[in-house]
Design a protein that fits this description.
Layout lengths: L6 E4 L4 H12 L5 E2 L11 H11 L3 E4 L7 H6 L1 H21 L4 E5 L28 H21 L3 E6 L1 E3 L12 H14 L4 E5 L5 E2 L1 E3 H14 L5 E4 L5 E2 H12 L4 E5 L14 H6 L7 H15 L7
Parallel strand pairs: 1-2, 1-3, 3-4, 4-5, 5-10, 6-9, 7-12
Antiparallel strand pairs: 8-11
Helix pairs in contact: 1-7, 2-4, 4-5, 6-8, 8-10
This protein binds guanosine-5'-diphosphate-beta-L-fucopyranose (GFB).
């Protein structure tokens, strides 16, 4: 990518999209374009086509998506499949029609079968049954990978797919009903400390294992892939190590400085028992993460405390 090239970041207000914009700007790219969902509804095919023909971007980072934690995925199943399929269809097809140079599509580690061998290699895609709580989202993300591959195969388009592990960082969602586990626990422990509550409730059994990557590392990987990778299929982005939800809760408890106990609400789902990424493909290309989990959470917590005044307790 040349510093003057026009780059469209779809989803620039989300956690991933905003991190990609920060990373591009920090490296001197100055022709970056974006639209809010109010200005451009990516589920509207005509609006997307008009946008591409007017703006003619050269590169596209497709980070726009309907996302959420285990409860949101399981509750709003129709929205998760419809919104994500519509966004992918419209943006990927428009990127082809308007002959953009390269597109990076972002998926998720939940595309892999629920009980796939660990760590998850890229070739395990479509080898087994998916985790039910996020099946609609996973199906949409798998469709996105297959769209990129089909346009590459039929038309020679340079469309690539990156599969991040669970992400966290600035601009995360802290709503306790729709968020992922890491921001949810930061908020719960912080509030429990502020309000001297005796215990914090953790959903599920605490035994599932998850891998966490700071979104600034993810954005760095996205730029690296845009410049150094051009293959069909998908490529995993993660750290290659995971921890249990109980270990994560204890780490956050320490960082926040909370002294109470943990209780487990086993009426809430655990989801996939484990989804550790095999990151050797990306490592062999020359990319590795740089922000250790403890340090990443400390930074995010400092930011959360600064902004917390506006958040009303639930
Ligand atoms: O982060 P999370 O919502 O999503 O939950 P997934 C991870 C684990 O943390 C689950 C537990 O076992 C939850 O039961 N957990 C404990 C909590 N306490 C909490 C809490 O207060 N809030 C939340 N949210 N979880 C999502 C998928 O799966 O991960 C998406 O649904 C996507 O499709 C995303 O792939 C990355 O890791 O289970």
């Amino acid at each position: 990518m040349d510093k003057n090239d026009k780059i469209y970041v779809a989803g620039h207000r989300g956690m991933v999209g905003s991190a990609i914009v920060r990373a591009l700007q920090a490296r001197g790219f100055h022709n970056i374009i974006w639209r809010t969902s109010k200005e451009l509804d990516l589920r509207n095919q005509q609006a997307v086509n008009e946008f591409f023909s007017r703006e003619k971007p050269m590169y596209v980072f497709l980070a726009a998506a309907k996302v959420g934690g285990i409860l949101a995925n399981n509750t709003y199943r129709a929205s998760f499949i419809y919104d994500n399929l519509a966004i992918e269809l419209n943006v990927i097809h428009a990127a082809h029609e308007h002959k953009i140079k390269k597109l990076l599509f972002l998926g998720s580690s939940c595309i892999y079968p629920k009980l796939a061998p660990q760590p998850l290699k890229e070739e395990y895609l479509l080898t087994g049954v998916l985790e039910p709580t996020n099946e609609p989202y996973a199906i949409a993300k798998i469709a996105g990978i297959k769209l990129c591959d089909a346009y590459r195969s039929q038309h020679g388009d340079h469309f690539i797919s990156a599969m991040p592990t669970n992400l966290y960082g600035p601009n995360d969602n802290y709503d306790l009903q729709s968020s992922h586990v890491l921001p949810a626990l930061l908020r719960k422990f912080h509030q429990a400390k502020e309000q001297n509550q005796p215990a914090v409730t953790i959903w599920g059994t605490g035994t599932p294992l998850r891998e966490f990557l700071h979104v600034d590392d993810m954005a760095d990987a996205c730029l690296f892939l845009m410049e150094n990778y051009d293959e069909e299929g998908c490529i995993n982005v993660g750290t290659g190590t995971d921890i249990s939800i109980t270990e994560l809760a204890n780490m956050i408890k320490e960082i926040v400085g909370y002294r109470g106990t943990l209780v487990f609400d086993t009426t809430k789902p655990d989801g996939t028992p484990r989804k550790l990424m095999d990151v050797s493909k990306l490592k062999n290309l020359g990319w590795q993460y740089s922000i250790p989990l403890q340090q990443g959470i400390e930074n995010v917590y400092a930011d959360f405390v600064l902004k917390n005044e506006e958040i009303t307790p639930e």
